[in-house]
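Example 3.2
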Amino acid sequence: MSELKVPTMAEMMAAGETPEILFWVGCAGSFDDRAKKITKAIVKILNQCNVKFAVLGTEESCTGDPAKRAGNEFLFQMQAMMNIQVLDGYEVKKIVTACPHCFNTLKNEYPGLGGNYEVVHHTQLLESLFKEGRLKVEGGAFKGKKITFHDPCYLGRANEVYEAPREVLKKLDAELVEMKRCKAKGLCCGAGGAQMFKEAEKGDKEVNIERTEDALATNANIIATGCPFCNTMMTDGVKNFNKENDIKVLDIAEMISSASDL
């Protein structure tokens, strides 16, 4: 396997180069062991397609999404202002991220604080790479498999990005089956709005269990996700039903990177 090339903005600037895009890795993609695999898959695809990109590395801080959703507006603004300073210092124009929370915050909350960038979700980037002919999928690893896609709240209902992930999945030569609750009527995995970091509240069922039942009802072999938090929640849900040997929970980037034999 060829080594992953991940240049930082600082290295690029020092070499007098400007990347096409800044890859915003996000907290989950940086620190969570499961989400790191998604980060690596995206880097493999970017390397394969010769997309000139860079990361901020240690200069990247949390976007402030969890703080804002949990009600700490002051902390959110402090985190955002720091990030905007760094981004503007590097004259960043276009950002791609695998986290719908980062995507939503950078795209919709940062302009109010003076941070204006073109922000795309990684499924949108994959879709455009396919359209431009820069990315091709040949592997039949998913041939004959049934895939169901779980819409992340901050990608779907908050930003109305429904087609990009589905268009990318259609390239896999598999059958795409929809859950009863999908697209604009999708159901949250239970981790959004900083819920990921707090204890469960009173009730008789966890949200992710309810959502996993929706997915199991489709008889899919693979639950496709486009968010590291959704990935964790759906994986836990599948384990709850002892189905981890039958059903895989994979991010769309991982599926494309394994199908392209990168």
